[in-house]
Automatic annotation (TrEMBL):
Record-annotated Amidohydrolase-related domain positions: 4-329
Signal peptide start and end residues: none
Keyword Oxidoreductase part of the UniProt annotation: no
Gene Ontology MF: a single term: aminocarboxymuconate-semialdehyde decarboxylase activity
Record flagged with keyword Glycosyltransferase: no
Native organism: Yinghuangia soli
Annotated metabolic or biological route of this protein: Secondary metabolite metabolism; quinolate metabolism
EC numbers: 4.1.1.45
Identification of the protein by name: 2-amino-3-carboxymuconate-6-semialdehyde decarboxylase
Lineage: Bacteria, Bacillati, Actinomycetota, Actinomycetes, Kitasatosporales
Domain of life the protein comes from: Bacteria
InterPro entries: ACMSD, Amidohydro-rel, Metal_Hydrolase
Pfam families the UniProt entry points to: Amidohydro_2
Length: 344
């Protein structure tokens, strides 16, 4: 089975000087310690300790070999989005990050597949950026699930998603910028509660606002972390749509009718959760995603899928075949798997 991890982060070796393109004082950059460790920085402030696999392609590929991962679809760390900055600076920043992403992946072009980032605070700039990036070699784009108060159903964002569909750029949506709430300030609850809620919110807004009726069906859309809380609570959303006119006022169909409009990764860490996810989404809509190389990710990418009661053919779909279709990776997997995928 070809194994493709579609949710893997990188942080290119961005210097403090580079970070000032985005913000004068607290831009994101990477401090390397020279011993295989480093620190993600925001200006002078330390944000998170990291290891060399986050920025060194040789170390990453060696780790992939050990883990049995053939290809990673790599995206920047959400800390790097820069949505809160003046548009011209953000556009220059994204172009620099995207160039460094291409350089990093060029070290192993048959193993590392780049996704770009774009200045989502301005639709025209974002569309121009994703067009440049795709033509330069990126396979799609990595987005935060909202830009300030604008969620994915906002007209400016659906215009961008429509542009991505026309460009053939797959879209990976990652939760970020969770609400600052004292109740989630401990125990990483912003990540454990806030992130799943953010993803559920974005999916339901696309469904209930009628945005899926406006965005082309050709859009290849992928949500991280197993779709957050959505798969478990889909029945609640359907029930509300049938019973309350204020829920269905903008959506001609119940939420479950739109399950064929997006994909989710497999980062749910529990066999029962994976079974539910596959039952809700279908075997052609779930892709291996590990959240590599961060501590909250799957330590052995694909181990959960392999340990499940899915059939060998279903496991093959989740581990790699679905990713080939979504990201257009036929040129990397070889003729055998590409021919198998094309026949399905």
């Amino acid at each position: 089975m070809t194994v493709i991890d579609v949710h893997a982060h990188v942080f290119p070796p961005i210097s403090r000087a580079d970070s000032r393109v985005l913000r004068d004082q607290d831009g994101p950059w990477l401090r390397q310690h020279g011993d295989g460790t480093g620190m993600m920085m925001l200006g002078d402030a330390e944000y998170r300790p990291v290891t060399q696999s986050l920025w060194d392609p040789a170390v990453r590929v060696a780790e992939m070999d050990r883990q049995g991962v053939d290809i990673q679809v790599v995206s920047s760390t959400p800390l790097m989005f820069g949505y809160d900055t003046e548009v011209a600076r953000a556009a220059e920043w994204c172009d620099r990050v995207n160039a460094q992403m291409l350089e990093l992946c060029a070290a192993a072009p048959d193993r590392l597949v780049p996704l770009c980032q774009v200045p989502m605070q301005d639709t025209e700039a974002a569309c121009e950026a994703v067009t440049r990036a795709v033509r330069a070699g990126h396979r799609g784009v990595h987005l935060g699930n909202h830009v300030g108060p604008r969620d994915l159903d906002h007209g400016a964002v659906t215009e961008f998603l429509t542009h991505c569909a026309r460009e053939g750029a797959a879209v990976l949506v990652h939760p970020w910028d969770m609400a600052d709430d004292p109740r989630t300030s401990e125990y990483m609850l912003a990540w454990l509660v806030g992130m799943p809620a953010e993803t559920q919110l974005s999916i339901l807004r696309l469904m209930l606002s009628g945005a899926f009726e406006r965005v082309p069906a050709e859009l290849n859309l992928l949500f991280a972390h197993g779709g957050g809380a959505f798969p478990y609570l889909m029945g609640r959303a359907d029930n509300a749509w049938h019973r309350r006119d204020i829920v269905r006022k903008d959506s001609p169909r119940p939420p479950s009718a739109y399950l064929d409009r997006f994909h989710v990764d497999s980062a749910v860490f529990d066999l029962r959760s994976l079974r539910l996810l596959v039952d809700v989404m279908g075997t052609d809509r779930v892709l291996l995603g590990s959240d590599y190389p961060f501590p909250l990710g799957e330590a052995e990418p694909g181990a959960l899928i392999r340990a499940s009661d899915l059939s060998p053919d279903e496991k093959s779909a989740l581990l790699g075949r679905n990713a080939v279709r979504l990201f257009g990776l036929e040129d990397l997997v070889g003729p055998a798997l590409a021919t198998t995928e094309a026949s399905r």
